[in-house]
Amino acid sequence: MLVDIVFVVGAYLFGSLPVLYWIGMLKGFDLRQEDDMHQALWRKVGFIEGSAGVLWDIFKGPIPPLIARWLGFDILIVGLSGLAVVAGQMWPIFLRFDSGEKGNTTGLGVTLAISPPTLAIAAIPIIIGALWRIISSMRGSAATTTERLKFSGVSDAMPLGMLVGFASLSPAAWLLREDPMVVWTFIGLFALLVVRRLTAKLRQDLKSDPRANTASILKNRFLYDRSYH
C-alpha cells in the first residue's frame, strides 16, 4: 500500500514540473498569468518553444502509467497514476497550485498509454475541432502566413471538440469491453477536466465583474473553457 501511494504521489509531482513556465522564463516571459501557456509560448515566444511545450505535455502523460504497468502495479494504480500526472499539470505544487495548464494534452497522453483503441474513438471529435480551428485561422484576415499560424483569437471548435472527446472516453472504453477500472479512470479524467474548466481563476473573473451572470460564466467555462463567449 505504501509503495502504491508513493508511486501515485510521484506521478503527481512529475506532472507538476512547470516545464512550460521554465521555457518562458528562459526566454524572458512570465507565463503564470496566461490563460493558456501552450498558446502563449506559441504566440509570444516562438514556434519551436511552443511545439516543445506541447510535445512535453503529451509525452509526459504516458510515462507514469507505462512505468506502473512495467513494474506490475494493479490496474487501479495504473489509472490513479494517470489521473495524478494530469492533476499535477492542472494544479502544480511547484507553482503553489496555481497557473496550471488545462490538462488536455497530458490527458490524451495518459489515454494513449492506458487504452489506445479508446483514444482512437475519442480522438475523432478532437481532430474535427482542431481542423476547424486551423482552417478558420488560415482563412482569417491576418496579413501573413506567420501571423495566421499563431492562431490568434479564440476558438469554439477546439474546446468543444476536447469536451466531447474526453466525455466519450468512458463510453468508448465500456463498448470496447475494457477493464471496469479503465472505464472509471476515464470517468475520473473527464471529471478532472470539468472541475478545472469550472474553477480555474473563477474567483478572479467574478471579482473583476461583480455584475456578471454566474450561471452564464459557468456554462461558457464548461463548453468553451473561458468565462465569456
Describe this structure in words.
The protein is mostly helical and 229 residues long. The protein is built from 14 helices and no strands. It is globular, with a radius of gyration of 18 Å.
Descriptive keywords:
14 helices; 229 residues; single chain; mainly alpha
Q: Helix and strand layout, with pairings?
A:
Elements: H1 2-16, H2 19-26, H3 37-45, H4 47-60, H5 63-70, H6 75-90, H7 104-114, H8 116-138, H9 145-149, H10 157-167, H11 169-175, H12 180-199, H13 202-208, H14 214-224
Beta-strand content estimate: under 5%
Order of helices and strands: HHHHHHHHHHHHHH
What distance separates the N and C termini? 46 Å
Q: How many structural units, i.e. domains?
A: 1
The overall average pLDDT, rounded, is: 86
Q: Sheet with the most strands?
A: none
**How many helices in DSSP terms?**
14
Q: What best-fitting shape do the alpha-carbon axes yield?
A: globular
Task: Report Rg.
Answer: 18 Å
Q: Uncertain regions: pLDDT < 50 for 5+ in a row? A: none
Structural class: mainly alpha
Q: Helix fraction?
A: over 70%
Number of strands: 0
Write a compact overview of the structure shown.
This protein is mainly alpha-helical and about 230 residues long.
